[in-house]
Structures are given as C-alpha cells and as structure tokens.
Amino acid sequence: MKKEETSLEVKIKSVAKRFAEEIKDQEIQVISHFDTDGITSAAIMIQALKKLDKKFSIKIVKNLEKEFIKTLAKDKLTIFLDLASSNINTIKEHFTKEVFIIDHHEIDQEIPEGINIINPELHNQQKISSSCLTYLFCKQINSENKELAKLAILGMIGDILEKNIDKLNNGILEDGDIKKKRGLLIYPSTRPLNRTLEFCSNPYIPGVTGNIKGVFELLREVNLTPVKGKYKSLIELDDEEMERLVTAIMLRNPKTKNREMLGDIFLIKLFNKLEDARELSAMINACSRLGRSDIAIQLCMEIPEAKKKAEAIHARYKQFIISGLKFASETEKTQGKDFIIINAKDKIKDTMAGTIAGILSKSSLYEEGTIIITMAYYNDGETSKLTLIEKDAQEISSKIKISARMVGENGRNVREILKRVVDEIGGEVGGHAFAAGAMISQTKEHEFIDLLKKNLELEIVKI
Fold first, then answer.
1. In the predicted model, what is the mean pLDDT of residues 129-148?
2. What is the DSSP letter of 4?
3. Where are the alpha helices (DSSP H) in 176-238?
4. Is residue 189 one of the residues assigned to a domain?
5. In this predicted model, what pLDDT tens digit does every residue of 380-439 receive, in sequence order?
6. How large is the average pLDDT for residues 333-348?
7. In this predicted structure, what is the pLDDT of residue 265?
8. Do both 166 and 184 map to the same domain?
9. Is residue 325 domain-resident?
C-alpha cells in the first residue's frame, strides 16, 4: 500500500470538493457501520445531505461482506462510512460510478482510479475516528455543518480515541462547545453513583460490577452516603471524595494503572441538557447492537421521542453485558501463553462479542500483551428497523462473528494474525492492530480455532 505525500487535511479538502462536484443531480447511497462511530458518521452525513436538499438512501450494516456489496445499486454515487478499507477490490469491480470512502481502519490494498478515500492510514496514521473525518469532510462542503461537531466527538469517544486528541480533534472539540472535567473514568458521571457503579463495565470492578451488595459495601467503605435517599453523581464529588473512591476501586483492580482510571469527562449538550458523552455514546451503541439503528440515529438528531426509547434499550443492553461477562467468566476457554479464546456459540449475541472482548481487555483479569478472542454465532434475524434501511437482499446465515482485542498498548498485531488464518480458511477480516474482527462460516469453526491456536503459538515463538 502506497502512502500519500499530501497531508490528511489537504486530502479531506480535495475529496470534499470532488464529492460536491459529483453529487449534482445524482441520488446518493450511504453505507455506514453500526457501532457508535458509524452511527454518528451516518447522522452527520444525513444532516449535511439534507441541508443540500439531496435525495439519498442509507443502510446501516454490521459487516461489509462481498455478498452484500453485490446487492448495492451499481450506478448510484456511493459513500461508505467507517468501513470499506478492506473491501476496495470488490468495490472497484462492482460499481460503475465513483465511490467515496471515509474510514480509519487498516488498509492493505492499492487505491485504484474511481475510489476517493479519506483514511489516516494513508497519511501519518493519526488517531482519528471516522465520525471526526466525516465531520471535517461535511464542514468543508458547508460551514453551517459546524453544529454537528458534537456528534463527531460522540463517535470519537465510542472508538475510545479521546486520549489521542491532536490538533485536528482539538479543533472539533472547540467547534462542538464540549465541556471537560477531570475525574474518574466511569460513566454516566451525571447519574447517582450506586447505579453508575452497578453497571460499570469499563473499568470492570471485581465484586462491584453487576453486584448491588458489592456496590453498597464500596460506598460505605469510602464514607459516601445518600442524601435524601439519593447518592451524589460522580461530577458532584469533591476532590477528597473522588480520591477515596479512586483508591477503593484501585484496591479492587490492583493491575489497573492510575492514568487508566483518571481522565477527562466530556459533557455534551443534547436535548438542551448537559450529558456525559460516554453515556450517550454507549446508548447509541446499545440501540444499534440490539437491532435499533433507527433509534440510535434519531437520538443523534435529537428527535424527542427517541430519548426514552434509547434509555430503555440501553438498560436492557447493560443486562446483556452483565450476563455476557458472567458467561465469559464461567465457561470453559481455550487458553495458551498470552492468549485466550472464548467460543460463546449461541450463548452471547454476535453483536456483543466485541463488547465482551473489549471489556475483558481493559479489566485486571489478564496480563498486558494477552490476546482475547471471542466467537459468537452470527444472527441476521434482527435487522434494523430504520425506515431508510432495506433488509439486505441476501440473507447471511450460518456464520461466526469473531472479535480480537489486545490487553494493553503493546503486543502483537491481532488483525494480521486473524488475516493469516482467515486467508487460509475463507472469510472477511477488518479492524486495527489491537482491535480487529472477522467473519467465517460455521462449518469452519473447529478448523479456525485449531489454526488460530497454531498461529498464536507461532507468533510467541517468533517473539
């Protein structure tokens, strides 16, 4: 893959200019990923296209597979958001009109004519979310899109990139009028502490997460008591109370570093109220992963009826997380030196596989450098109810969703390991060096595990 000599900012300007020229008198189809980064990218693009009075359709997808790409209209101008960097050759073969891609995932294919791509991997590998790239792109097209900056920040937080704020991201924070407060990185920071701690999964607190008795023991230990029947929220704690709480949590999570527990709490105005950006981001993610991308997008667009629906879905989603973590802790696992494979089969929703792997990778349960792989049977039965989204023309069934995460910030490239295995047995791979995913046929389940084990053990020998 050839790196471009131009800067990312210059590339955004040139692709945005090309897009503005190409969309005249054309219908546009937008394809976006279903996680928070993809949903916020889609919400930004929807509102930008509405301002231009353009006719468009939108599809939100779990994965971008060859079979699905072949169902898309060939002769429409198409823009992919938060995906497609691993599908460039298939895209080039299928479409007869120019294609635009805004993505930040790893890319290992040459960029042919007719593919207009914005991806930091082709420049200086800046840590920036697809939602932030989409925002900068749309701001180039129309300066009035500045009001959408807060959605870009929600996507950034959804992809856990808030610790990598450089000049580009900082400008977006300023555009979005985002408030920041230093504190403990558990959310929501605006809700009573007992509820926040009970459902806290990042960080996972042994004996507290999912354990109401453990929550009250912790709060008594740090001398925090309810006032008029209600506990303080995180942002209401004074410095001394915050220090006691951090100390107590770290004693339960001895391997967690202080810098991982403390950081900036981002407060965003949505529905005319300051909300914890991490909570909003998690809510968007929950809606989409439980098959309601329509509610997720309506929440981003501040449609009043969406908020209560999103809160109810998020409450259900948190229960799924707790039960998924319980299953992961109790089930038999395939383990080796510096890796663990959890094959949930149909016991965990496929949309939860990455969430569970991510939470475990940030817990104190595993040493830095450990690779965590979760597997779950893929279910295409819960198609999004977004009215603009049509049901995929081709049913995807009998597949397995695979998610891989690295514990810590140093270790092997999990995407490369997955790619070696999947290239041999067939399937799709995408993602980043420390957080990747794949899709394979269920018929390859045991072959995949055996081959993955061999590759993981081979990597250790190489090191």
1. 95
2. P
3. 193-198, 212-221
4. yes
5. 644 344 434 333 433 445 899 999 999 987 888 999 999 999 999 999 888 888 899 999
6. 92
7. 87
8. no
9. no
pLDDT confidence of residue 5:
64
For residue 250, the enclosing domain spans: 180-315
Amino acid in position 233:
S
Q: How far is CA 431 from CA 87, 154, 441, in A?
A: 12, 19, 19
Sheet holding 262-270, edge to edge: 179-184, 262-270, 273-276
Q: How far is residue 32 CA from its own chain's centroid?
A: 12
Domain closes at, from 262, 286, 315: 315
Query: How long is the chain?
Result: 463
Which among 428, 386, 422 has a CA at the least distance from the CA of 69? 428
- Residue 322: inside a domain: no
Q: Give whole-number Cα distances, 242 to 192, 193, 207, 262, in Å.
A: 14, 11, 20, 10
Other C-beta atoms closer than 10 Å to the C-beta of 308 total 10
Least confidently predicted of 162-166, 247-251, 327-331, 452-456: 162-166
The reply to whether 336 and 307 lie within a common domain is no
Residues 6+ apart with CB under 8 A from 406: 361, 369, 370, 371, 372, 412, 414, 433, 434, 435
Q: What's 19's domain CATH number?
A: 3.90.1640.30
CB within 8 Å of 169: residues ≥ 6 apart? 128, 132, 156, 161
Mean pLDDT of all residues in the chain? 87
Could you give the number of structural domains in the chain?
A: 3
